[in-house]
Amino acid sequence: MLNHVVVIPDGNRRWAKRKGLFPWQGHLEGAKIIGKILEKALELKTPYFTFWGGSFDNLTKRSKKEIKFLLKLYGEYLKKLLKEKRVHKYKVRINVLGRWKEIFPEGLKKIVEKSIEETKNYNQYFLTLLLAYNGTDEMIDCIKKTSAISKKQKIKIDEKLIRENLWTGFLPPVDLVIRTGCEGDPHNSTGFMMWQTAYSQFYFTKTLFPDFAPEEFEKAINNFLERERRLGK
Questions:
Q1: Is the model's pTM score more than 0.85?
Q2: What is the Cα–Cα distance from 11 to 13, expressed in whole angstroms?
Q3: Which of the residues 16, 108, 126, 172 could staple to 26 if both were Cys, CB 3.0 to 4.6 A apart?
Q4: Residue-wise pLDDT tens digits, 181-206
Q5: Domain span at residue 186?
Q6: H or E stretch including 15?
């Protein structure tokens, strides 16, 4: 059974470069794919779907023009998502995790907060968007919080305390991580969801994200379902 799938959408910029386009045009095409993948995830009755929309480094170290475009794209996507009938029909709860409160402009923060607020009572499906997210940041924040709690309450740091203080702690363990755009370099990035992916399976594909069709998403799911999971046993 597949309960929680994550997609790391690599390759937007490379896709644009190969076509002689600007990097942000690759992001625009990638955004069009997200909706199609989410639709397929709902069709396959996948309860938890997590999408890494951008790392903190992506949104602070790239060119100002590209960052500005990405922020605008996030806002447009979230507005469209809230108008999507299937989000409300299937009771999809939207969560946004990461350091977005630190760097997003006020207008975009309000859109993010509205997306979370208007779907907070939905509990059939769960869409989590990771924006300005680095796994190392999540773990550092968790260490600070658990250390302070342990010292103040004089309690032992255990698995339960750690999980309760992770940004992603409310999510179930990740069953499958799909990373697109891997050309001989299958890899993780910035300690991505290191606690929740402890026993995850991985699916790497050379397909750049703007070309990652729902059919390949379903292929990845079926590939996972055919595997034997030992979970460290």
A1: yes
A2: 6
A3: 16
A4: 998 889 999 999 999 999 999 999 99
A5: 4-134+172-225
A6: helix 12-18
| Closest among 106, 111, 107 to 94, alpha carbons compared | 111
CATH (domain of 57): 3.40.1180.10
> What does 38-83 look like in DSSP terms, one character per residue?
HHHHHHTT-SEEEEEEE-TTHHHHS-HHHHHHHHHHHHHHHHHHHH
Q: Measuring CA to CA, how many Å separate 37 from each of 100, 198, 212, 215? A: 23, 24, 9, 9
Q: In this structure, what token pair is assigned to residue 196? A: 């929740």
- Which residues are known catalytic residues? 10, 58
What is the pLDDT, as a whole number, of residue 76?
97
C-alpha 12: how far from chain center: 15
Cβ atoms 201, 175 nearer than 8 A? yes
Average pLDDT over residues 32-42: 95
Provide the domain count of the chain.
1
